[in-house]
Design a protein that fits this description.
189 residues; alpha+beta; Aminopeptidase; seven-stranded mixed beta sheet; 4 helices; 7 strands; 23% helix; 23% strand; globular; Acyl_CoA_acyltransferase; acyltransferase activity, transferring groups other than amino-acyl groups; GNAT_dom
């Protein structure tokens, strides 16, 4: 599959929305309302469960316009077939205070969430997105990359943090648990 990996920019907002509003959640409609905003939301004040799909879509559009939501789109023949939400760890509200000693958030790139359209799964899209994120982390001088793959994903959608095997093959090392449901993997850049 000839894919092109491009950064999310305000000019590419339509591609992002096409993926989220279209095929991206065709087999997992229950998660379609997030618009990859969950880790950008300040959960300390509560209220996430009251955020509608329209609220999240509008907030994601605002974040894309302000360039505070960062990541990469996978394009096939000009259309989006994949997305990776990845940025410096300190860009995410949900990861504040989750620093590991010696690995500060301002030195760490976080691979948060993947979305790969069902028709594009199993074709290397997630790996291409991850590789592009790692290259960008290195280019920006970050020292570490982190991710939190599921411990028990039983569906492709359940691997939205990326499969553990993909990270291990790329040289990540398991470094304990992120939560009771997720491993913590880390790569020295």
């Amino acid at each position: 599959m000839p894919i092109e990996i491009v950064p999310l920019t305000p000019e590419r907002r339509g591609l992002f929305l096409d993926l989220f509003d279209g095929e991206g959640f065709a087999d997992n409609p229950g998660w379609a309302d997030c618009y990859c905003r969950f880790y950008h939301y300040d959960h300390d004040g509560g209220g996430w469960d009251r955020q509608s799909g329209a609220d999240n879509r509008a907030a994601a559009c605002d974040m894309i316009a302000a360039q505070t939501m960062q990541g990469w789109l996978a394009l096939d023949d000009g259309g989006a077939v994949g997305w990776l939400n990845a940025a410096r760890k300190d860009a995410y509200c949900a990861f504040r205070g989750a620093d590991v000693p010696g690995k500060a958030a301002d030195e760490t790139g976080m691979i948060a969430c993947f979305l790969v359209a069902p028709s594009a799964r199993g074709k290397g899209v997630a790996r291409a997105l991850m590789d592009r994120a790692l290259a960008a982390f290195r280019d920006s001088g970050l020292k570490w990359a982190e991710a939190k793959p599921s411990k028990s994903a039983d569906t492709p959608a359940g691997n939205y943090h990326g499969p553990l095997a993909m990270y291990l093959k790329a040289g990540f090392r398991q470094d304990g648990d992120f939560s009771e449901y997720q491993h913590l993997v880390r790569l020295a850049l």
